[in-house]
Backbone:
């Protein structure tokens, strides 16, 4: 999503990244209620926190209404996606979840990470475009040329 489109988004709930992160969180809560994973309070709780972190950081960053801060929060959200993918490997490796469950959720986490990465890149392009604009002297400028 280009920043020009982003400025048209009035609510974080309208961001595709947040919508996909919400689905990811639902999937995580579903699998962490399964008997084997449910008993591992540490792993299941960490997986839940990581997934909630993704959608929460997207929302919080958006509401800050500053591109630089939004970018920072998107970086945190993307890192939480990576943390969650790593935790999925643990759940798979200790046979808490099946390969098919792992693949479904892993794919969703990868998609969320890609969307967040694209949103960050769009913010970067917009910031670079703004800083690359030539400065214009204001008629109210204190610097005058009397040639």
Residues:
């Amino acid at each position: 999503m280009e920043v020009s489109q982003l400025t048209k988004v009035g609510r974080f709930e309208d961001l595709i990244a947040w919508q996909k992160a919400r689905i990811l969180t639902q999937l995580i809560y579903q699998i962490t209620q399964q008997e084997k994973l449910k008993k591992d309070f540490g792993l299941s709780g960490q997986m839940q926190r990581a997934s909630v972190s993704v959608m929460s950081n997207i929302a919080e960053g958006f509401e800050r209404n500053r591109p630089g801060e939004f970018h920072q929060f998107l970086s945190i959200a993307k890192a939480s996606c990576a943390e969650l993918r790593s935790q999925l490997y643990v759940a798979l490796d200790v046979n808490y979840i099946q390969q098919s469950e792992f693949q479904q959720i892993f794919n969703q986490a990868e998609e969320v990470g890609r969307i967040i990465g694209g949103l960050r890149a769009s913010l970067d392009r917009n910031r670079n475009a703004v800083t690359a604009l030539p400065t214009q002297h204001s008629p109210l400028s204190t610097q005058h040329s009397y040639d």
